[in-house]
C-alpha cells in the first residue's frame, strides 16, 4: 500500500501559490492606495518565481490507480 503521490511538490506548490497570492494582493492594494509604501517589484518577482516553480514541478498530484480494490 503506497500512500505517496507521484508529485511530491504539489502540496508545497499549492501553499506557495496561496502565500504569494496574498502577498501580491496586499502589495497591489498598497500600490493603489499608498504608492509610497508598496513593494510591487518584489511581489512581481515572487509571482514570476512561483510561476516557474509551478510550471516545472506542477501543482496537481499525479493520478494513481488504486490497486487495493
What features would you highlight for this structure?
elongated; 61% helix; mainly alpha; 69 residues
Write up what this structure looks like:
This protein has helices spanning 10-33, 40-57. By secondary structure, it is mainly alpha-helical. Helix 1 runs antiparallel to helix 2. The longest helix is centred in the N-terminal third of the chain and has 24 residues, at 10-33. The relative contact order is 0.23. The model has no long low-confidence stretch (mean pLDDT 79).
In brief:
By secondary structure, this protein is mainly α. The protein contains two helices and no strands.
| End-to-end distance | 11 Å
Proportion of residues in extended strands: under 5%
State the share of residues found in helices, binned by percent.
Answer: 55-70%
Give me the Rg, rounded.
17 Å
Described by strand count, sense and barrel closure, the largest sheet is: none
Helix/strand class: mainly alpha
Mean pLDDT over all positions? 79
Count of β-strands: 0
How many helices? The count is 2
